[in-house]
What does this fold into?
Amino acid sequence: MTFMHEGGAAMWAMGVVALGSGAWAIFRRDPARARQGALACLVLGLLGLSGGLTNTAMAAQRAAPGDQATVLSIGIDESVNNTFFGAGATLALGLLSLGLGRRRVEA
It folds into this structure.
């Protein structure tokens, strides 16, 4: 849970979008919904990254001169969690979309 806590609100939004669109796609057998969820997770991941980097830059400006490097390294580390989670959710939903699309063609 530290991973999700460090990522902030965008991580939780991505989790809800990924689970919701994945469940919708599976139960409705709709590969388009999985693709839409994948795109939404990618966008949320990038927004979380940009918001986290902005907050990190503002915190580094307020930090003491000797602590700026530490603040930057911690902030960048926490911000990149959004990108990794967004990329993972996008990959999972993209693979789900491919699997549902093939199943639809075969049926």
Summary: Residues 79 and 92 are 21 Å apart (CA to CA). The longest helix spans residues 68-106. The mean pLDDT is 89.
